[in-house]
Amino acid sequence: MSVTLARQLIDARANQLTPIVFTERIQQIGAQLGAHVRIRDEAWLREHRMGGLLAIGSGSAQPARLAELWWGPEDGPAEGSVALVGKGVTFDSGGLSLKGTAAMVGMHTDMAGAATVLAAMSAFAASDGPGLDVHAVLPIAENLPGPTAVRPGDVVETCAGIGVEVVDTDFEGRIMMADALAHACRRRPRAVIDIATLTYQSIVALGPEIGAIIGRDPGLRAEVEGAGRDAKESWWPLPWAAQYRDQLRSSAPGATLRNHPGTDTGRALTAALFLGEFVPTDVPWVHLDIAGPAVRGSGADAHATGFGVLTMAELLRRFARR
């Protein structure tokens, strides 16, 4: 049932699952799971300086949102929770760095990471009952080229206080995820797992049926691999390539990082390096790139698989057993 839930959400078209509709579904599902749910609006995002998420949603008439779900204390996620972060781009046109027509069709599936987190929480609750403090952070927006859209070259400030130069507005997911990861880490989680349809180059490296695992923490990487084997989902680790970190440095005023490495190679690795800048080095963290296996087929014929739901649910079970 949980895999079916993920498929239904991912296969919904962009006019059927807008950011507002998606957050309404998250509220409904969260209530069914007995989770606390908070939907953070644009005023809250501005107050908490989430300039990355706001920038990506700025070209759409649909407002950006940050959805939080957790099991634990009512007043907020507990320190030491397991944090799950899922990319929720309900449609990705590329923004002002506009995709071609063929590449744009099927981009309603770019919220697969957020749907996978939500469905994994459902699967875990159905089999084990909550029994574990879990904090899900889901940044949700449409990436459209409206009159107020973020421009290539603009500098945005993330909630971590790190300025980011937006070299390419089609590299939007990592900017949204940066704010979500930094926010999740405020509660000093015991582990952070993020999941996203982030880079085409993960497909180049591993093909369309294998998910990529990248992260600094070898123990957590091994846990994900083991959970994937038990769930019968295929994952493969890619290296934590710190030697490429300089590709992310920006010389723009007010910016430390840029969202584009300036090269056509290694982009799955530099995407993970970018995300890692927003996770403290003493927090176990792993990034899962499901750009390939989240869907089967392409364009108008793309259909969601629900890949990743069973692995993440099994991973939560492993944490709960400790």
TrEMBL record:
GO terms for cellular component: cytoplasm. The keyword Repeat does not apply. Keywords: Aminopeptidase, Hydrolase, Protease. GO terms for molecular function: manganese ion binding; metalloaminopeptidase activity. The keyword Hydrolase applies. One of its GO terms (biological process) is proteolysis. Residues 5-312 form the Cytosol aminopeptidase domain. Pfam families: Peptidase_M17. Belongs to the peptidase M17 family. This is Probable cytosol aminopeptidase. Presumably involved in the processing and regular turnover of intracellular proteins. Catalyzes the removal of unsubstituted N-terminal amino acids from various peptides. Coiled coil: none annotated. PANTHER family: CYTOSOL AMINOPEPTIDASE (PTHR11963:SF23), LEUCINE AMINOPEPTIDASE-RELATED (PTHR11963).
